[in-house]
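hey so i finally got around to running the thing on that chain from the lab meeting. sorry it took forever, my laptop kept dying and i had to restart like 3 times. anyway pasting the input first so we r on the same page abt which one it is
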Amino acid sequence: MAWQRKILRVDLTAGICTAEPLNMEWAAQYLGQRGLASKYLAEEMDPKADALSPENRLIFATGPLTGTAAPTGGRYSVITKGALTGAIACSNSGGYFGAELKLAGWDMIIFKGKAPKPVYLWIADDRAELRDAEGFIWGKSVWEAEALIKARHQDPQIKIASIGRAGENLVRYACVMNDLDRAAGRSGVGTVMGSKNLKAIAVRGTKGVAVEDPKAFLAAVTRARELLGASEVRDDLAKNGTQSMMDVTQAFGSLPTRNNRDVQFEGVEKLNAAAMATRRRTDGRANLITNKACFACTIGCGRVVRMDPTHFAAAGKDRYLTASGGLEYESGYALGPMVGVDDIDAATYANFVCNEQGMDPISFGSTVAAAMELYETGAITDAETGGIPYVFGSAEALVNAADLTGSGEGFGKDLGLGSKRLCEKYGHPEFAMVVKGQEFPGYDGRAMQGMALAYATSNRGACHLRADPYEDDFSGGKLEGKAKIVKTTEDQNTVVDATGLCAFTMMIWSLEEVASQLDAACEGDWTVERLRDTGERIWNLERRFNLAAGFTAADDTLPKRILKEAANSGSGKGKVAELSKMLPDYYEQRGWDPDGVPTTQTLQRLGIG
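ok and heres what got predicted. didnt touch it at all, straight out
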């Protein structure tokens, strides 16, 4: 139960869709979503294959709790070899698409090959077929494509995951977008989708999801909801969204600013949650309209905002004057402090473009920041930027970059390479704030040493969601304990990603709440200990994929700036990331050899063949 026990295979080259049973032995070991799809990926493709080749697999996967009444049980993931990194990629999204796919009777979709011409996949419960996208939605934005698909099928309840023009143009950090502003956002999963000539997946599901023990499941769900409802953390997320984190990192001195040259930003009060909530447009209307929630969510951290119609970025662009997804912490940091811009409308505009054209705002903003440093040094000039001065703090440059990258025009083609490739092209690889080719999220690793280790060891490149060292970092925990905290929380977050639940629940729940819901929903005994083992198994499987792809311990590192240049203010003032002191302990905690390779004993213990 909870699993639908069925996957959809789509051979894009041949144009054939077929159903097959879910491998339940693998489900027992890897659970679902991030875990189970990674197992299929590792078994079915050569990790050395180019990410943009037809040999790469693209997997849309739900978890066993996706589509159920479990609080936040609406998640799905896109798993592939990442176009940005060349590493294993798993990008998680909320909204309603994942639940709809599960309600249509499918646990996952596995795409292989490349369609001869642009197509989209149409699913109505058990029926699945590829349809022509050329001359229909290819070349359209996410917003345009979604409206056209719903009109063609005459059903506003259809849920759609699609790429925008960024994915079609192979921007290296293109997203898969769903519900207009929810994203499987990192590592270039949308780029892989574009490389396969796959524009969208449209789903209508009416089947429901059964659970093993309905009475026990209801009790577990009720208890979990009560904990969420009584939480001050939940209340803050509902009221302020994730953008309230900006005040925390600013005060602590871990807010990446101007391409991580600084760790605090003087313009925070123009961008933070309070600014978003209190700001009035010139027509007197509020900037922030409301919050919003995903399927089965009782938190509602999403923001719905609108731009000021008199702002220069809005001129002649009426579609951006309607309500859409607002700044969250990661997009707010990347489109604000990271590029030195304190103009909330310019940042909101860039975020709208990222949503409409399907781009990861973290990677986009960080790439623009790298371009600004390159411009400052003279490596990039007005000849490349079309006469726009790409200087830190320029709202005009940010808006220009969003327009050009989203459309794949002019200097946007260079920006679409991502920080690593851009900085290599212009002779300054040290300006790229990346791990394994993926740009930093909004936490500087000099003040937050645990996060530095988490960035360096993340299987998908720099990530703020793969581990949970926040409480220890912000409380000034000792360096000696960081490796254990990072390893333990990596395993925990990994298994939560495999369930179909949102990671934000773990700010309030323990694994007890996850285990109780899973145990009631699924066959077999799901205990906290089994969940921890499952998370560790998935992590090691991902590591093995990356090693086979050519990654080594040398890739478990950080940019020179974070390792050699001391922070200039805040709690980390005078400090660099002490990675060399933490990494050997981390390898030992993991049961890996000094070269970062899982030992035979570790693989045998976890049942990884």
